[in-house]
């Protein structure tokens, strides 16, 4: 049976990778051709991303992938975290030039933007129009706090910016566009009326394009680096969570998912958005999925709390922490030493000293502050699991659909303690894996666009089920 080879550029908040995959009707094989670090870059004016460094790493990774594929790379797809963007200005010679350095969504400057947007359009009205949960860093709030906005001719979301630098073509891929707050939740087209209410020039945005369409060929100037080839760049679910949901092998119509990395995205795949007062009050979002589906979910603080905690200990002690042995010790912590606290507290959003912030929160709430590293690690994991369980039940209530199984994908699926705690606290079986769901979702949409695969998302997921073995965690209580 014919197979094709594709490269997925998958940029997460703490690392990026280029995954080389061979895909066919009975084949789904992949490996990492390159992996590189990513993270918050604190500069004097705020928190940023090293976007040019990421582009360079992605290009190097594509060069490796192209070499490994022996010049047979059929296409490239790019996904990354949502909401953030680069601003561009016209130049006399043609190609647009980036203005400033893209901000990290954890930068605190957006608070002023939230007030400014809500003074023009209430959150209740926004929700009716864009269907998005309130996150202070949604693109529309960032834009309202953006000093360079007046000088910009174009705003490109992170994967679209990389796509532009690779191909010279500008589009806004639809799943990620849905996280800006400026897309109509029903038509999935730019809401130009909302833009004018907010004083945003609609020309700032490139046309919306669906996953599965072609962006263009890599620029000829890049061919020497890419094995002499101009590679086709295919638009995939460029919001990483959209690709992760494609790559979640949902095994029943009543399945829920948790895409767990830095964030835990907890929810359901629906055919239509749910834009009710109750869903707004529960802060559930209706992000755009591949094939016009709706990702009805809510953001839960994910492994960020754990990774920032490890980073604090590393900084204090001047040495690396061993996560594996910490998790082993955490597994032995007795129930009486576990403190369940509210992981959604806003003070946990910016980078910083999480152990101190957790103690502060526990002090304010009259909760025992976890003493010792294993106790703190276990308390973080159990607290995340409690929130996951609440979010699952709320999703089921709001969508009027029962849940019979939860698929945990992404890095969190390797955390056995978290998977088991989620099963125990929710009462649902948790089917963990694949860890690389995002890259898989990216590869599958490329292969379908190339004609190697066909059918619905269910057909694509069936290939994952046939080729990968998950680990099941059954509720123990
Ligand atoms: C996960 C993610 C999530 C967004 C956040 C900004 O990487 O894309 O879906 O809410 O980052």
From TrEMBL:
<feature type="domain" description="Carbohydrate kinase FGGY C-terminal">
    <location>
        <begin position="256"/>
        <end position="449"/>
    </location>
</feature>
<keyword id="KW-1015">Disulfide bond</keyword>
<keyword id="KW-0808">Transferase</keyword>
<dbReference type="InterPro" id="IPR043129">
    <property type="entry name" value="ATPase_NBD"/>
</dbReference>
<dbReference type="Pfam" id="PF02782">
    <property type="entry name" value="FGGY_C"/>
</dbReference>
<dbReference type="Pfam" id="PF00370">
    <property type="entry name" value="FGGY_N"/>
</dbReference>
<dbReference type="InterPro" id="IPR018485">
    <property type="entry name" value="FGGY_C"/>
</dbReference>
<feature type="domain" description="Carbohydrate kinase FGGY N-terminal">
    <location>
        <begin position="105"/>
        <end position="247"/>
    </location>
</feature>
<keyword id="KW-0418">Kinase</keyword>
<protein>
    <submittedName>
        <fullName>Rhamnulokinase family protein</fullName>
    </submittedName>
</protein>
<comment type="similarity">
    <text>Belongs to the FGGY kinase family.</text>
</comment>
<dbReference type="InterPro" id="IPR018484">
    <property type="entry name" value="FGGY_N"/>
</dbReference>
<keyword id="KW-0684">Rhamnose metabolism</keyword>
<dbReference type="InterPro" id="IPR013449">
    <property type="entry name" value="Rhamnulokinase"/>
</dbReference>
<keyword id="KW-0547">Nucleotide-binding</keyword>
<keyword id="KW-0067">ATP-binding</keyword>
């Amino acid at each position: 049976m014919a197979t094709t080879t594709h490269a997925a550029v998958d940029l997460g908040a703490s690392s990026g990778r280029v995954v080389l995959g061979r895909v066919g009707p009975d084949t789904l094989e992949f490996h990492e051709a390159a992996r590189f670090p990513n993270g918050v870059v604190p500069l004097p004016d705020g928190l940023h991303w090293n976007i040019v460094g990421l582009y360079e790493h992605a290009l190097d990774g594509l060069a490796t992938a192209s070499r490994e594929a022996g010049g047979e790379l059929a296409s490239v797809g790019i996904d990354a975290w949502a909401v953030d963007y680069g601003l561009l200005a016209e130049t006399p010679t043609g190609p647009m030039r980036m203005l400033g350095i893209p901000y990290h969504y954890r930068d605190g400057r957006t608070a002023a933007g939230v007030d400014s947007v809500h003074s023009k359009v209430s959150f209740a009205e926004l929700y009716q129009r864009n269907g998005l949960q309130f996150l202070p860093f949604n693109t529309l709030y960032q834009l309202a706090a953006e000093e360079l906005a007046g000088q910009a001719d174009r705003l490109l979301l992170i994967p679209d910016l990389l796509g532009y630098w690779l191909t010279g073509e500008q589009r806004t891929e639809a799943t990620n566009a849905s996280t800006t707050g400026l897309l109509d939740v029903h038509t999935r087209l730019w809401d130009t009326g909302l833009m004018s209410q907010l004083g945003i020039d609609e020309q700032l945005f490139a046309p919306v394009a669906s996953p599965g369409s072609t962006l263009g060929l890599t620029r000829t100037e890049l061919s020497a680096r890419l094995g002499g080839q101009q590679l086709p760049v295919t638009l995939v679910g460029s919001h990483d969570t959209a690709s992760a949901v494609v790559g979640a092998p949902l095994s029943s119509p009543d399945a829920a998912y948790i895409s767990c990395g830095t964030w835990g995205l907890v929810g359901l795949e629906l055919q239509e958005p749910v834009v009710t007062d109750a869903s707004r009050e529960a802060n559930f979002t209706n992000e755009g999925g591949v094939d016009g589906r709706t990702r009805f979910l809510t953001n839960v603080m994910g492994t960020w709390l754990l990774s920032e905690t490890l980073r604090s200990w590393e900084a204090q002690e001047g040495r690396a922490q061993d996560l594996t042995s910490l998790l082993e010790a955490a597994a032995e912590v007795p129930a009486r030493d576990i403190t369940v606290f509210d992981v959604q507290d806003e003070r946990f959003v910016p980078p910083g000293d999480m152990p101190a912030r957790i103690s502060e929160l526990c002090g304010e709430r009259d909760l025992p502050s976890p003493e010792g590293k294993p106790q703190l690690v276990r308390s973080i994991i159990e607290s995340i699991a409690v929130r996951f369980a609440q979010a699952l039940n709320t999703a089921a209530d709001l969508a009027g659909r029962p849940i019979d199984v939860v698929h945990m994908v992404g890095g969190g699926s390797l955390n056995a303690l978290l998977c088991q705690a989620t099963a125990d606290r929710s009462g649902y079986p948790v089917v963990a894996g694949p860890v690389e769901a995002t890259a898989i979702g990216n590869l599958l949409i490329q292969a379908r666009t190339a004609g190697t695969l066909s059918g619905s998302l269910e057909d694509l997921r069936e290939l994952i089920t046939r080729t990968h073995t998950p680990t099941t965690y059954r509720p123990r209580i």
